[in-house]
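Notes continue from the previous slide.

Worked example: a multi-chain complex. Inputs as given:
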Amino acid sequence: MKKTYFLVIVFAGLLVVFNSCQKSTSYRALIITGQNNHNWKVSSPILKQLLEQTALFSADIDSSAKKGSDMNAFNPDFSRYNVVVIDYNGESWSEKTKAAFVDYVNNGGGVVIYHAGDNSFPDWKEFNLMIGLGGWGNRTEKDGPYVYFRKDTMVIDTAAGRGGSHGKRHEYEVRSRNLEHPITKGLPARWIHGTDELYSQLRGPAKNMEILATAFAAPGMGGTGRDEPMLMTISYGKGRIFHTALGHADAGGGPAMQCVGFIVTFQRGAEWAASGKVTQKIPYDFPNVGAAAFRPDFKELTLEGDLAKIATYDFTKSTKYFTDLQIRIRTEAKTPEALINFEKPMIKLLESKDATDDGKKLILREISWMGSELSIPVVKELAKNPSLKDEAEFALARLQGAK
Ligand code: ZN
């Protein structure tokens, strides 16, 4: 065997091992979304990215519960997952789906309640036991007490009144109430959270609930003057629930979701809900009481952005943009017309003088099955390029076969 061939084989083998290492995540997460008075189209993909960044999770998004859809058709198999993230505030689920969710949590399944997730299902008793506290949806004293802190004491307040409010959005200090819990252990006792709503006057059964962190709702900002719960844990059956009231989504996530404090507590809370422990290290950029900290490079993936990144792709780089493109095509392109809306910018990339050959190879691979005769001229042209010849001829054969 020639030495170069041998090296190529060894290198290819290493790539396979490397790739399979990357994919061996510990936990499976399911993000439930599709109906929300918040911008779930922004928040859910970000939550997915945050989970996958930990390298502990692979995450699926189930947005089949679209507004106005037949809720009987919404039937996720919760039991396949270690944690279910609720980015949902919408219509009631079917009795069958509710029962499956209760079974899942009773049997030890983890749950993360994210921001307006705690507005959901005001009339579903078991769900309210899982979230501990909720807001809006005509919640009142009939749903349970207010719970908040006064100085260092937790107050359970049965006064009559609405459940759920917030004042003006602003940056605020989050104060830990238990630094020994796996989620908060090692975090600063106080840190500044990026501009967000400060959920207040939440009320609910508050059974088997622990408040890990609060924030003071300043009257000057339209707040209650109380230390309101921001991070909570609840146990239900054998299941663990992490509840974060933080993270109102603006375009690109906005300051509330780009806040390192939100990101890290969400990631740690999800790991704890899935496993009962937290192995993630506290990152160096975690905020302190001096100032909020952001990860502003955190951008929502878009078709244009994906294609721009693929145009600069070489095999040493992440294929996440290509993966995102593939997911978009599979989920968004349900008709031949919709496929052509993807095919056209992909043809542009193939025609571009600036795009890399490695990027073009990825596109050729995809276009070989989803392309139409529109792609044939450029693919024929690329078959003349020695470094793209194999991929182009393969695609051409399939495109001409399809025709
Ligand atoms: Zn909000």
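Summary box: Residues 13-23 have pLDDT under 50 and may be disordered. The longest helix spans residues 3-23.
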